[in-house]
Design a protein that fits this description.
Layout: H1 2-25, H2 49-58, H3 71-76, H4 93-98, E1 105-110, E2 113-118, E3 124-128
Antiparallel strand pairs: 1-2, 2-3
Length: 133
């Protein structure tokens, strides 16, 4: 009987060790524990362009008139790239309140365009060209 209980204890210990070591070998999944302010670069945001353009048309008086961007800046403005520093302006707070909110992002006006930018990185997520049309 003693031999059998030692055998069962050995098998149980080996099984526990196997399960524990495989769990420890897995890399942690940090996506489950994202809180406010996490880096949202890997998440795709779906922007409802027609709805947003309708808001801009309805509140055109709240838009600050801007000229077109210089060609060099226009050429480098793209989704996934950092926003050029110092050029983008915040929208009027009344207009911002009506725009869709995406956690971790904010809307900016850059020339005649509306740009959705990641707050933590300044990377452009979406561009709505010529919001004045």
């Amino acid at each position: 009987m003693m031999l059998r209980s030692q055998f069962l204890a050995t098998v149980l210990a080996a099984a526990t060790l196997a399960v524990t070591s495989s769990a420890l070998a897995q890399p942690p999944d940090h996506r489950k524990h994202q809180g406010p302010g996490h880096d949202a670069r890997h998440e795709k945001v779906t922007v409802e362009e027609a709805v947003i353009r309708a808001i801009f048309r309805a509140d055109r008086q709240l838009l600050e008139p801007r000229s077109d961007l210089p060609p060099g800046i226009r050429k480098n403005l793209a989704r996934g790239k950092p926003l050029p520093p110092g050029l983008a302006k915040r929208f009027d707070h009344r207009l911002e309140a009506r725009l869709p909110h995406y956690p971790g992002y904010e809307w900016r006006q850059l020339g005649r365009d509306a740009v959705l930018v990641a707050v933590t990185t300044g990377v452009v997520e979406a561009i709505l060209d010529n919001i004045f049309d």
